[in-house]
TrEMBL record:
CDD domains: Ntn_CA. It comes from Micromonospora narathiwatensis. Residues 1-29 form the signal peptide. One of its GO terms (molecular function) is hydrolase activity, acting on carbon-nitrogen (but not peptide) bonds, in linear amides. This is Acyl-homoserine-lactone acylase.
Amino acid sequence: MRPRRLAAAATAVGLVAAGLTATTGPAAAHSGGYSALIQRASYGVPHITAQDFAGLGYGVGYVQAEDNICIIAESMVTARAQRSRWFGTTGDAAANVTSDLFQQKVIDDRVVERLLTGPRDGVHSPSNEVRDQIRGFAAGYNAYLRHTGAAHLTDPACAGKPWVRPITELDLWRAHWTNMARAGSAALADGIVAAAPPAGTAPARPGELTGQLPAPEAAAVVAAPDGAPAGVGSNAYGLGRDATASGAGIVLANPHFPWDGPDRFYRMHLKVPGRYDVEGAALVGDPLIEIGHNGRVAWSHTVSTARRFAFHQLTLAPGDPTSYVYDGKPRKMTARTVTVQTPGGPVSRTLYDTHFGPVVVVPGAFDWTTDTAYAISDPNAANNRALDGWLAMGRAKSVADLRTVLDRRQFLPWVNVIAADSDGKALYADHSVVPRVTDNLAAACIPAAWRDLYAGSGQAILDGSRSACELGRDPDAAVPGILGPAHLPTLVRSDYVTNSNDSYWLANPAQPLEGFPRIIGNERTERSLRTRLGVHQVRQRLAGTDGLPGTRFTPANLWSVTLGNRAYGGELVRDDLVKSCTAHPVATASDGTRVDLTAACAALRGWDLRVDLDSRGAHLFTEFARAGGMRFADPFDPAAPLTTPGRLAVDDPAVRTALADAVQLLDGIPLDARLGDIQTEPRGTERIPIHGGWPEAGVFNMTINLLEPGVGYPKVVHGTSFLMAVELGRNGPSGRQILTYSQSANPNSPWYADQTRLYSGKGADTIKFTERQLKADPNLVTYRVGERRD
């Protein structure tokens, strides 16, 4: 049977260019086929309506392919373990071999296929609705590719490339699995691939990689202060009735994600009448809204501090480093030789598993010796609940409903939830998937040598020789091996909750959350400057001391607060820093060079303490903070966590050294340069000025970029990405939203730079949830996509 496209001959891009509308009728379902109505609003944002989830998935796959086919195609190459084949193995591509070996083992072990078996209840295995959504997504993507042809794609990143191929449902499920395991197994992929028994204990097979491979990423994961995936973060507010002018709930979503690559967000509004109606954003390649709102509830996610895996210290059997002792008896590891294709020929590696999970090495910390090895338990490696979880979140009618979803499904891989509802209740919850390391288990099963590591970072290393030290099961947990809801921090308030990637402790300082297992996060410890500013901004708004009218939040003033671009670190220490460098105008840099600080003092004195486009000297303070200059004279006081520490250690010579280092680093760039002239984002030949700054300077609106000597910051790496301020009012949701880097990564798309320019000016698109809101958009373009089988 041959699929046939039902869409109008022109795509959305063509319709925009022609100023035409293809159709205005409702989406119709076709037996055995797919159909979706696409309504492209301003900035190319699709509002997709279908009569079933297969049709909805088809529409999502089609429009995401229209806008970002190269991103999705490359993600599929990764999931297929073919990065080495298509992108090489030398230079920056050296990590492709590790990626492929890791992914090929997932394929060989049929990990995803096994997760798709079982009752289709959305907890034990994905529901039929979610499976239909995935099936439809693959079909919609393939339809666009078939209609356009790889040779005629307009994105130069993948036009005519042989790796742009049709995709399967299994490809999508494998890519989804990798996202679930991102902060666990996937974060330790190099350590898993590197794991090999001590040299000389086992013969190498022909074509096998030999020796102990370096594992720098694994070492970074273990050394991290928490379990957050690298390169991501977020701010979020849930504002209740006591904090809003209307009494309805308001949510700020402010995820900080990469501006390029597979982790870009994509705005959309998805609707199956009577069954699902949600507006917001998802990562490109994902078929359901992950941050957004329906008519009654809005939510966002911030990256949680909880650890996503537990190490198990294995006592090896004498004379056999591939067997470990368990309850006094030896157990053989499972060895699997994995082979991938590279331009230089096949590469093989033998990978090892235990009943806990894969064996991992981290040189210098977790080495595989003749006596000891280490394996990890990664509960997210069996997390097949997430898409159903987000589907259920989108159907929640209140904060209470949302709590029920979180409790029952426990699906969030590595994020918190911050939410509010139309009744004015606000919710914070870290209901993410966390290994079941209770305080009792930690006390009984973490060897003495590893207790300080656990106390300081939450990283658990359990005794792997005893069954009593297995993760076990909480009676209220959705699945074995994870902490149940009773062990997880949750807070419902009528005023506000907030999170900026510190732990749960001060979600609302008036009601600290305490007494939870250390693996989730720390308590009564110093908060980041960004966390502190986030709380100060709410408190000052409610007190009416932030310079804005009134004493409550609206979506408009929430937008102004979020993009106020305060540098809280500067507010704390700038004046004392200027006094110091004025009194001592010459300092010694780290390399021993004597540096004149006169111009630096003048630039900092004239700085407005913000990271706006017109701010002058902001970059100097940022580099000072990044060089370690934020050193305080007063200690942290858990009784005053929002104001301590707060006094610059002016007598510490490292402070003036950091300023001297910053001056050296900025050689060739005026120290009083306007931020908008040196911090930009390229779009073709255009350089769009970008505001925001680094968290080390205490900036809430985070913009992370790399300094190019003598030039400035010519490219954003990650930071504020999808930004939403939504109010759940009586007449439906309203408010503002924007995708900072724009809807499409294709330089030939009309939606490649438009929202980026809008963001540069602190502008916004509007919430368009209701039919009235959508039809009021003067740029609305409508077309239908689908296929039926003859």
